[in-house]
């Protein structure tokens, strides 16, 4: 058995995965704030999974977490939403559990999980549509990181120099058009679910909402074009909080891709709309991918935790 955890800013999703990759137990709990609380959240989730499954033999723990993960280490830096500036997460959790621990950026971990759920073949880009926009690229089961680990950071590619101001300082970034945080900031009405409200208001004919919704589709479609034209992936799989919009989101993006290809035989030949897919609702892709991260560092002999 292997454990994978997707540590988010508000909740942690943890799964116990068997040798065949099937999820045999799953728990969710609130994520604590600050280094010690984050570690306690993770350890508590592992213990809860172990108890639920009857104290099985666990070989490894993998963790997907926001922020930067220093390459080749288990150290996390700048996980601002978790109150973590710098933390050797692998050492802290491994010391408490007595298990090998692998750590990866949450979007990259989710990319590995989505690739596994997608059939683990060919090439795929996982496009995370949440507060921000980022992607992970997987080919033949391996993450493509680039020279400095920034491959897939498509959110801060400017696609309109006259577009909305992005938090990175540029104008017209993909994230400024399509990030949930940016849309919420530009939507003039207070709401618990601002992006959903934008879609609903757009369907009711509100001009401000229609402009925001069209901008979201433009931003996501731009990200799809970038990922296919630079990495030529077989599929672009959408995940993240905005995918709760379901077909309303995907249909908008496919329509935008089709419209942008009308004048270009080359773009039409790429069949971009056919390459777009949506992760199933409630998918544990990020936690499953984290379990794969942990499996990659397992020693030859299984360890026991129970």
UniProtKB/TrEMBL annotation:
<protein>
    <submittedName>
        <fullName>ROK family protein</fullName>
    </submittedName>
</protein>
<dbReference type="InterPro" id="IPR000600">
    <property type="entry name" value="ROK"/>
</dbReference>
<dbReference type="Pfam" id="PF00480">
    <property type="entry name" value="ROK"/>
</dbReference>
<dbReference type="InterPro" id="IPR043129">
    <property type="entry name" value="ATPase_NBD"/>
</dbReference>
<comment type="similarity">
    <text>Belongs to the ROK (NagC/XylR) family.</text>
</comment>
